[in-house]
Structures are given as C-alpha cells and as structure tokens.
Amino acid sequence: MLCAPDLSRPESVAAESEHLALVTVTRAIGYLEEESDLPGGVRTVRARVDTALKGTGPGELELGQSVSRTHGGGYTTAGAETCYDLLEPGRQYVIGFCTGGSYDDGYVLYSETAHDHREVDGHAAA
After folding, report:
1. What is the CA radius of gyration of the chain?
2. 90 band by pLDDT with thresholds 50, 70 and 90
3. Do 1 and 68 touch, CB atoms closer than 8 A?
4. How many CA atoms lie within 13 A of 25 on its CB side?
5. Which residues have CB under 8 Å from 56's CB, separation 6+?
C-alpha cells in the first residue's frame, strides 16, 4: 500500500489535501498493480466535481485510490486507519486529493461517503 499522511482528524485532511471536493463517482475505469511483491494497487475512477471545497480544478476528474483486492475479485479499503471509503460509481463522496502524478488528474488521500443532509435520524426532513 502507498504511504499517506495521518488523516484521522478533519483539520489534518484540510491541511494535507491540495484539493477538497464533494464529488459523484460516475464510473470505474481500471486497476493498476503497483508492485508485484506488495499486496494491493490503485483503482482508477472518473468523478464529477459537484462542489469544490478547497482548490480549483476541472469539472470532471480521473482519480486513483489505493485499494486491496478481495478473494472474490473485488476491491476494498478495509484496514485503512483513517476514513477512506471505497469510491463506487453512482455514489457521492467528500474527498481530499492531490493533483498530478501517474494517476491522471489526481490521487485520493481521503474519502468519506457523503451523507444525505435531507435526512435526520432516518426520517426525511420536510
């Protein structure tokens, strides 16, 4: 797995991330195995930026996210010590990311599933 800064606190996420954004993942693109002697690799996805929270960038991004493979051939971020939800198509997330590198538009440092603020305690707000 790739090394990442300590992102266990919101202030660390804001300080360490070049960009913060609310995004919707539009599709999964692929998987790249980083090193044959280390488990895991990088899954790439395409995402639409719904709201930029820090930094500016394009309206759509191709992003890399460090993942491990499951026995069933899927992907997981289980075992991550910080909030690092697996990016899935059709879902919305708050992400912290850095641009550049070998993962096209950026590399995800932090990802958290966005909560539907229209719901309060499981009930739709009026």
Report:
1. 15
2. very high
3. yes
4. 25
5. 19
Distance CA 126, CA 45 (A): 34
Residues 56, 58, 11, 103, Cα dihedral to 10° = -130
Phi, psi dihedrals of residue 102, rounded to the nearest 5°? -95, 15
Average pLDDT (80-92) is 84
pLDDT band at 124 (very low <50, low <70, confident <90, very high): very low
pLDDT in tens, 94-108: 999 988 767 668 889
State mean pLDDT over 72-99.
85
Strand partners, 68: 76
User: Closest Cα partner for 109 from 123, 94, 121?
Assistant: 94
Supply the pTM of this predicted model: 0.78
Handedness of CA 82, 51, 53, 45 (dihedral sign): positive
Residue 89 DSSP code: T
